Known about the structure:
- It contains 27 helices and 30 strands.
Amino acid sequence: MPxxxxxxxxxxxxxxxxxxxxxxxxxxxALIAGLLSPLAQATAAAATxxxxxCGGQCSxxxxxxxxxxxxxxxxxxxxxxGTQPAHADDQLGPYANLASEYSTLTDAKINTFFNxxxxxxxxxxxxxxxxxxxxxxVTIVRDKKTGVPHIxxxxxxxxxxxxxxxxxxDRLWLMDLFRHVGRGQLTSFAGGAAANQxxxxxxxxxxxxxxxxxxxxxxxxxxxxxxxxQQALADxxxxxxxxxSYIDASDSGRYFxxxxxxxxxxxxxxxAGTIDHFKLTDLVALASVIGSxxxxxxxxxxxxxxxxxxxxxxxxxxxxxxxxxxxxxRNDPEAVLTVHDGRSFPYGTKPANAQGEALPDAxxxxxxxxVHDATGTGASQSATAAARQATAxxxxxxKRGMSNALVVSGAYTASGHPVAVFGPQTGYFAPQxxxxxxxxxxxxxxxxxxxxxxxxxxxxxxxxxxSWSATTSGQDIIDTYAVELCQDExxxxxxxxxxxxxxxxxxxxxxxxxxxxxxAGSYTLRVWRTKYGPxxxxxxxxxxxxxxxxLRSSYLHEADxxxxxxxxxxxxxxxxxxxxxxxxxxxxYTFNWFYAxxxxxxxxxxxxxxxxxxxVDTEFPVWGQAAYEWRNWDPATNTADYxxxxxxPNSVDQDYYVSWNNKQALDYTTASWGDGSVHRGNLxxxxxxxxxxxxxxxxxxxxxxxxxxxxxxxxAEDVLPDLLKxxxxxxxxxxxxxxxxxxxxxxLTAGARRTETSAGSKTYADxxxxxxxDAWWPLLVKAEFQPGLGTDLYSxxxxxxxxxxxxxxxxxxxxxxxxxxxxxxxxSYVDKDIRAVLGESVKGPLAEKYCGGGSLGxxxxxxxxxxxxxxxxxxxxxxxxxxxxxxGDQWCADSINQRTLGGIKHRTISWQNRPTFQQVVEYTSHx
Length: 927
């Protein structure tokens, strides 16, 4: 098995030993003496906000820490000695420790593992107080425990100025990185590492905006939203003024982030060089990255077409379509649901007679090249591999899940008040993509997390008497159109007229720096845009040359969601479940939103769901013709009719809600595959349902349910029992298989968790059983399905849905060591197939029985033979090692790494499948 490569990151600082070529030892000492952060401001009395109705029962956490900026001196000390800047990692330990201590948790201990998220700061807990830029209308207080900024303004402008200033204090370098990612300019800014190339290519392909496009999105969002649009513009300008004020102050005071020196933008000795001011269009570029990562469901229609063609090639059109549909699980009756009250919300359902389909001719599909005119390391083997992966990530069906929520109605809690434990899984980075803050000012009263550079409002958090959070929903807002070519490869028919495609380019070049030693190189990113969106593939359909384009409803509308977030922060707007739902209806990204106050809970699924033409099947490409366009679609503005709010899954005061990127409601089709009988959402559903049935739910019990699910191996908990039933249908005579069965059964009895023998041991209890299952799963899936499906169809289906997503796998947008696991895999297929072979009832079965051709005896032989092979597979083969872990180190292979986006490194922590930012809330009263 090849050595696993951990996905590298935008910042790759040379080791301390290599720094000698950059700075002499004496210079380093001088820098450490002269470039330490400015002295902390004198402490002052806290500005405590009134109107906190949580009664000390709101908590939150974001590892590794609030402080994501470090001077050059601090970076050098961290690289040489491991020392951490203040508040850079003080939330990492509490976050990590919950995994080993949740079983003894009590309400009194919750804030041992979380922060107190009450408004304000007690006077004896004030670490510093400052008036940014000497302004008299805003104060930033930081608390001693975590260094979180508590921003209090007497004017709206001052409040937002303070929010921008605090954001720059905590995340300036990260904000700068991601405004360049959003423009496809990362390599020119931070270096030409293969990972940087892949990252900028992934986002540029989906959002190839010109500066005029970015500005137009601002203008349209303001113009379309009346007074709130004008307020959002004023807020954004004040926020930018705060950011830029900090840039100027830190530049003149020489305490700016040290990464600017290490990437060649600033000179450590003379202070020559500049840090560019932020502008409004930077915020849109940042928003496009976050929306693409977490809030844009859909895509993958070409991959779907290829697997359908493979199925029809093997089985014939009618039977092949039936087989394909059974694996697609559009509306699986066994899927766990967030809205489980029986109501139906049809969306993306299969039409009786599909119209306008434009399936490619077999073998004709090629991905549209993005990289052109590459030189040096822009044309290297690693660059080619990065480009290939970026293309697959950008063009495949959205696999951007992550995030979970557990919300219980007050009718089932001990206090009679709702309890919620929820948050987004945004990966693990250093510094973290999210930052904590509290903002109090005219028309704003909130505390929580926001993406760095977009923190003019709290995006996930709490208001005065309510909290809200989100998970990625993934319903389909992206469609693929086949446009017929005319004249040449760069003209297409639009409503019968041969129309030129628009060429959009970004030229990048780089050279070695201290941070990234990648040799010099360059390339041009080139996208061809049509009225139906950017070109993604070329193919033929019925012999006609076509370009496949991708069009998403949020394309050219990255700024629109600002209005919904503004409303969520406004205490005069959100006062009830209904006003909460109204606020999130203004968010055009695809999210599941959850709400809790002292009396009510609520849920709403957001996103601009386009109203499609009658007969269009959202799963496959359709012709770029007027008959198949979105209803009332205007290509100039990319606006259309959208499904009304009542047609989005929504609910108030259901007994409980769970979400882990699972299916939202009956008949509501999500774009990604895998919403079947076994989904990681079941790990929450099973635990919360039992709590609700027993009654008396508390914050402690709900946190424990989340933490227990975070350590569970989904395959072991929900699929292994059926596999053992098949094996137990006869006597196991092979001693290797018998021993393996015994170990797996013991692990299952113990709870099927991936947990350390003791806190900090870095060794799993039941480690051998875990190794066996990790080795067995890919072997059994292939042996179970490939003989029946055939190699071509099996390969095509694995392109739609990978077979596994174990903790040690390199997967998703954040690579390996990413925490989030068990979202995308073949567990539902294995579950349904094995149950069918056992003769058990299966709702929504696969079209055929695959394991052993449906023979229980033959299926058993397959399971035992693959299990025997897995048992004999060494740990070094199962866990081949990477740049963080030695081969065979099981715990390390699973472990979570705070992936460096700057110069500060942190320790790895034991695996948990858990939100990055998380809240625990139970309000005691209401306004």
